[in-house]
Design a protein that fits this description.
The chain folds into 2 domains: about 250 residues, Alkaline Phosphatase, subunit A (3-Layer(aba) Sandwich); about 100 residues, Phosphopentomutase (Alpha-Beta Plaits, 2-Layer Sandwich), CATH 3.30.70. The chain has about 375 residues and is an alpha/beta fold. The chain is built from 13 helices and 14 strands.
């Protein structure tokens, strides 16, 4: 029975994209700058799979001549954005023509509509790092009981609340109500950001939940309609608002996600199956917080896991793809994502050689349609056909 695994290493970019200057990101390089800053950093399994080859290709250099364990290349985003939703939608074959709406602060009319819909008053309403805003407004939130609303350079409404002040179910209800207003404003995500602790020692919990705009039709819908079981691991179902996802396994961390991947992959599916996983810690815990050593450690943890996992899908028939959705250079100014090319490592029914610098993330969607013997997807080009 055919099965495929697509792993998104959230934010693991490999060098600024050709249009990075338009986003203020010319010179950004998530993986390259981690290599330069962290002494002793080693990811030998990913190197063997062709990651250094993909990095060289993305940067316009001559790739190494060493043989690799997987096919390798890089992807260039065509959509006008550098956020999680934009990247994943393009990976699934739905590039965006126009960017999501972004704000430095929500205008009075929009804030009023959000408060009316959710039946609360908010404090905050400005762009800020998720950890910094807790330092700035966490104590006021505890005193007043009012949730914190904030944003970033991404298209997001983020709503933070202490789990002992506003219970999770109520926080999620507030976010669902705000999602209805966000739909009318083309805002990509409403994100629940629960936290615990006391002033000076607040900690965000793993009970984050993303409420996303309903996506356009993607290859996930095509797969599901043709009998392919689509399994989301991590926040995949959230990103696609459940559209095209047959079954979902939310996870608490990279480690949890890797355990779920391994457990599910070892099972023998009764129908053709795609496992689509997002490992978010790279981005959420280390990229946005500009924690270079933490980011390096997370990559090394994944590399060790991959070394043990690879013999399982390495049968020459099952399709394995490893990629990313954008960059988040932990050495870069600010706290936001960076516009970068991303790696593509693949194994299965294709030779272990270069698959080139691809013109769109949607090449993954086209390759999935090709692999499962469906009609060609409308965007992107299958690297399996190449």
């Amino acid at each position: 029975m055919k099965k495929a695994l697509l792993i998104v290493l959230d934010s693991v970019g490999i060098g600024h994209a050709p249009d990075a200057a338009e986003f203020g990101d010319e010179g950004a390089n998530t993986l390259g700058h981690i290599r330069a800053r962290v002494e002793g950093f080693r990811i030998p399994t990913l190197e063997l799979c062709g990651l250094a080859h993909a990095e060289a290709l993305a940067g316009g250099s001559k790739p190494p001549s060493d043989p690799t364990r997987m096919a390798w290349g890089c992807l260039t985003e065509t959509s006008p954005g550098k956020d999680t939703t934009t990247g994943h939608w393009e990976i699934a074959g739905a590039p965006m023509e126009h960017p999501f709406a972004t704000f430095e602060k929500f205008p009075p009319d929009l804030l009023s509509r959000l408060e009316k819909a959710s039946q609360v008053s908010f404090i905050g309403n400005y762009a800020q790092s998720g950890t910094v805003i807790l330092e700035e407004l966490g104590e006021e939130h505890i005193k007043t009981g009012l949730p914190i609303i904030y944003t970033s350079s991404d298209s997001v409404i983020q709503i933070a609340a202490h789990e002992e002040i506003i219970p999770l179910d109520r926080l999620y209800e507030i976010c669902k109500a705000c999602r209805k207003i966000a739909d009318t404003e083309n805002i990509g995500r409403v994100i629940a950001r629960p936290f615990t602790g006391s002033p000076g020692n607040f900690t965000r919990t793993s009970n984050r939940h993303d409420f996303s705009l309903q996506p356009p039709r993607t290859v996930l819908n095509l797969l599901e309609e043709n009998g392919v079981h689509t399994v989301g691991i991590g926040k995949i179902s959230d990103i696609f608002a459940g559209s095209g996802i047959t079954e979902s396994f939310p996870t608490k961390s990279n480690r949890d996600g890797m355990d779920v991947i391994q457990r599910l992959w070892q099972q023998t599916p009764e129908v053709p199956t795609l496992y689509f996983a997002n490992l978010v810690d790279f981005d959420m815990l280390f990229g946005h917080r500009r924690n270079v050593t933490g980011y390096a450690g997370a990559l090394e943890q994944f590399d060790t896991w991959l070394n043990d996992f690879l013999p399982i899908p390495d049968d020459g028939k099952s399709l394995l793809m490893i990629t990313a959705d954008h960059g988040n250079d932990p050495t870069w100014r600010g706290t936001d994502h960076t516009r970068e090319r991303v790696p593509l490592l693949a194994s299965g029914p294709l030779p272990n050689e270069s698959i080139g610098c691809r013109d769109s993330f949607a090449d993954i969607a086209a390759s999935l349609a090709d692999y499962f013997s469906l009609d060609p997807w409308t965007t992107g080009k299958s690297f399996l056909s190449d």
